[in-house]
Amino acid sequence: MPFRLNLLFLAVFLLFSLLVVRLGVIQIVYGDDYVSELERTENVTVNTSVPRGKMYDRYGNVIVDNVPLNAITYTRYSGTTAKEMLDTAEELNKLIKIDTKRVTDQDKKDFWLLNHPEEALEMLSDKEKELKPKEQYKLQISRVKQEDIEKIIGEDLKILAIFREFNSGMSLTPQIVKNKGVTKEEYARVSEHLDTLPGVEITTDWNRTYAYDETLQTVLGKVSSSDEGLPADQIDYYLARDYKRNDRVGKSYLEKQYEDVLQGQKAKVKNITHKGKVVETEVISEGERGKDLILTIDMELQLAAEEILEKELLSKKRGGANRYLDRAFVVLMDPNTGEVLTMAGKQYVVDKKTGKSSVKDFALGNISTSYTVGSSVKGATILTGYQAGAIYPGSYLNDQRMKIKGTPDKGSYSSFGSINDLTALQKSSNVYMFKTAIGIGGGHYVYNQKTGMDSEKAFSIMRNSFASFGLGVRTGIDLPNETAGIKGSEITLPGKAMDFAIGQYDTFTPMQLAQYVSTIANGGNRMKPHLVKEIHNPINDSKSLGPVYQQIQPTVLNRLDMKDEWIKRVQTGFRMVMQPGGTGYANFSKADFQPAGKTGTAQAFYDGPNRVKGTPPEDTMNLSLVGYAPYNNPEVAFAVVVPWAYQRHQDHSMNKEIGYQVMDKYFELKKERQKADAKASDKDKK
Which of the residues 370, 375, 518, 624 is marked catalytic? Predict the structure, then answer.
């Protein structure tokens, strides 16, 4: 017995000796290291978002602005546990109202597991408890009963909604908990209790506001919400550019195209942490809101154009025009710079549930939809004929109905007899264009005989030439997702090449027509259309524009490889269209702005949204009109397109009515502004 006791005492002595030695090593050898570790702090830099840049029209009228919003945010520290977040969420729930619509069943299952740790553990067998945590979690989630999550209602559901927002943010990055409908009372209550709400802050967020409601909204684009954050399909792109997952970005069109300048310079804050807690915050840079865009758009003219489109659209619908008529477009641009002054589109829609009709903004349709446009393109056909040697300025051809062996006869709306190129444009002769296309393909017309033309050659020459005007290719406008139109595939048939020459085969967008007529108006330069005129740096005074950061210079995409006298010849033909005997004279006879242009009517098939599946497409007529003014010194060019305007037994001139009214409004506004400028100048002199 004494021996055993001595042996036990010896063992205890040795163990205590080892403990003393170990403590000595820790204190003496590694003591300084451990003290340093306890005192160690980390510097973590966090970027916080700033309001986006504004958008103005060419005269300084605000189009897109930011409206401030009271916001409540939560910043999760690196050492914060789920239980601590849950406790904070419970306290915050006492101070604010929260929307629970975004809570999912998955969120409820997570919440149940968090609040029932012992029961969650009992869900696993002994063997399953040896699995990795992620695999255990998957099993537990799958075993949470539906009846358990259905009990998460009332206050528990609200706490979960707040906890869900807490858990959505990245560590040390502010996550918006609520920014819509934060009342002054809520803002004040949270402000008073910040010391008991670790990680919670009150701040000011922003939202996009549109001064002209729906006007141009389809072109201006959208910005993601704080809930959406970065678009899922572009998340890697933005993360590589120092964005955070919950950052708001431009999702479409101008907002997306100019994201780099609209986003602004984020504020940078350095968080100094100790043991996972933020002990000090240092502002590195205040940040700067996004740069402002000055658009080329004249909003007063834009609104007038939209009003004209809507009025004409509703008028023709009430007048019994084609039941498929549901849209109309008009583009006005400076032919010398490519600046888009107006980009208007309207669409007539009927709610299938209520049966109520309304007219919606469809400005985007000017670049995203394309149509056969008819005779408006005949200026390009004539110039291509000159270039290919099929005709020359002053060539006379006989306009009588044509019969090509094995095909139905073709002709103009009337037989004009022997006419030259100018009269062909003025009267809109189809036969003159048909014979020009045959000549381009190396053929020759003889009544009831084959033409001998190489239609593939004709298509190749005409399409390449049309592209130099901007027809059938993307215009290069500063907007994403522009369509190039649709090219017909049957290029071995002479009749199709002849149809192409009168604008009844390939499809073109209204913006392409505006670029095409601008190319003729300015003497042969294809200008790149653009919607942004200038980019300005922001300044502290949010009501004023800052200094110019960048001016968007006019860009010539290509020069027509054609003689100047040929282009002037077509300009003369376009002028004759608007004079007595021309197809546009009836509507433009009273115009004092000296217009030139070309009308267009195309036989088409309805392929729009209301087509009945399984039935053949119905015949309709598309209307178009292109032009510019004044004819001898063009300052504005325009294009009008009215798809599916009427069926063949009907008739109206909606394209010309729109074109005249919009152009008349342009020059009316010009006179008013000149008078206002003269008055202001006189006042300054006095």
Answer: 375
